[in-house]
Structures are given as structure tokens and as C-alpha cells.
Amino acid sequence: MSRAGKGVVGFLVARPLVAIAIAAVVVGVLLLQTRSQKTPVTQREQHVALTDAQQSQLGSQQYAKTLRANRARIVSSGPQYVRVQRVAKHIETVAARDKPDFTWKVTLLRKNVANAYCLPGGKIVVYTGILPLTENDAGLATVLGHEVAHATAEHVAERIEREHLTGVAAAILAGVVAFTPAQYVRVLALLDAGATLPFSRSQESEADHIGLVYMARAGYDPHEALAFWKRMLLAGKGKEPPEFLSDHPSDAHRVERVRGWLPEAERAYRPGQQS
Ligand SMILES: [Zn+2]
Questions:
Q1: CA torsion 148→152→156→162, rounded to 10°?
Q2: Is the CB of residue 55 less than 8 Å from the CB of residue 159?
Q3: Which of 93, 142, 186, 222 is the most exposed place for a label (fewest CB within 10 A)?
Q4: How far is the CA of 145 from the centre of ligand 1 (A)?
């Protein structure tokens, strides 16, 4: 933050009433700007106030924090690194057609946790622990397609909007401090995807649907997604269900729904595009 920026924050901390007034203005402006838009692929009408740039900024802040805390775990060479970068690049290329203003980037962390997530704005984290479950590139494309779908469908921003926290998120971006700790913690928790709060089941289902079409567009056989979700169903019944399933809750009908979207994914499938 610049010296001038620090000065502003110091001024606001010292004068909470001024800070509250500024926050109220920020909230008011944002409420006016809440827009109606359609999600990619599923074409569901949704209401979001945070812009793509604001989502990118919030996601990038969270990403930088995560990478700082896990510096020693970052995998930056070797076959697993190459594989994750290769598959992510194909999925990101497809997702970027829906969200050209997001900055896509994937980081592989060495951690025995079967999970992955994508922050608002396109920053992706994959743990090495999920790679054995993916089995092949198409399985990994299923996971990454699902994760980036949460970002392109703006699921976090949508939840922030639904919970009337847009003003708080905007205030965090602006460096204004006039909100209650509980609201602040809630926004950070919503941003900390893959660690704290699961998405809703309808958002999960939508990410399955969009992700399936994305992986097919990226050149991966969508039938492999069905195989992947069947493996996850089995793994979920085991003694130690993958963390991915607790962060991405679904129900027994997930595999059947994915099967139902296969014809659409087959039409989107472009074999050989991924090499
Ligand atoms: Zn999910």
C-alpha cells in the first residue's frame, strides 16, 4: 500500500464515523450496480454486483496469501507439474472464452489432500493428493473443468450478493474498515474456497454441468468424466472420503445427472484439441 493509502486507512480508523459514511456510499453505489446476467453453458439468470475486476482482485489477494503460507510445498518441476500445467492450459483456454478478463493461473501444492479449487478471477490450486484419483488427463480435466466453472459462473460473488455482503467485499477492496468482524470473517471464509465453506448443492450441480461441457470443448472425452464421478462415488463410501467431496457436496444422483448432460457434452466434444 502506498504511503498515501496508509494515511487514508489511519484517518478512517481514527474517525470511525467517517469510515462508516464512506462504506455506506460504497454500498449504495454497488447496490445500484447489481446486474442481472446469465451463467455460461447453463444460461441461468443470476444477480451479481462485484465486477470481474473486483472478483479477480479479491481472488488474487487470497491466492497470494495461500502461496506465501505454502511456499515450501509449491511444485515447480517434474512430471506432475508438467501434467497439471498441460491440462490446466487447455481448460483455461476454454474458460477464458467466457471470462476474458480473468487471469488464469494454476499452482500445484505438494500435500496429501485429495482436493483442488479455483478462486474468483481464475487462480487455481491443485493438491498432489488428488492426482491418483484423477487417473488420467481426462480425469484431471474433469476436476479442473468443475473448479473453473465455479469461477466463470461467479458462484462466490453470487453468494456474497445473496448474503448482502457485497458492500463488505467492496470495503475490503477499498481498504475501508467500517464493518463488523463477523461480516469481514464471513467474506474471507467465502473466498477461502476449498478450505472452509462448501458451495451449495445447486452450485455444485451447475459446476458439474459447465465443467463437463468445458472438458469436452477442451478435447477430453466427456465419458471419462462419468467414469471419474463414479470413482468419486465409490471413494466417498470408503473409510476416508476424499476432501474434495466434503468441499463439493452433492448427492447420490450426481452420476445420473452427469449422464443426462452427456449428449450436450458430446456435441461440444472436439477430439484431439488437447495436444
Ligand atoms: Zn465444486
A1: -150
A2: no
A3: 93
A4: 10
Confirm whether 147 is a catalytic residue. Answer: yes
- Each residue of 177-213: pLDDT tens digit? 555 667 777 777 777 654 445 688 899 999 999 999 9
Return the C-alpha cell found at 216. Answer: 469436452
Domain coordinates in residue numbering, the chain? 46-170+196-268
Global pTM value? 0.84
Residue 2 has a pLDDT of 44
Q: How many residues does the chain have?
A: 275
Query: How high is the pLDDT of residue 30?
Result: 52
Catalytic site residue from 45, 135, 147, 256: 147
Q: Ligand 1 center to residue 235 CA distance, Å?
A: 16
Q: Average pLDDT for residues 61-69, to the nearest whole number?
A: 91
Task: Give 163 or 70, the one with higher predicted confidence.
Answer: 70
Give just the sign of the alpha carbon dihedral 73, 75, 78, 80.
positive
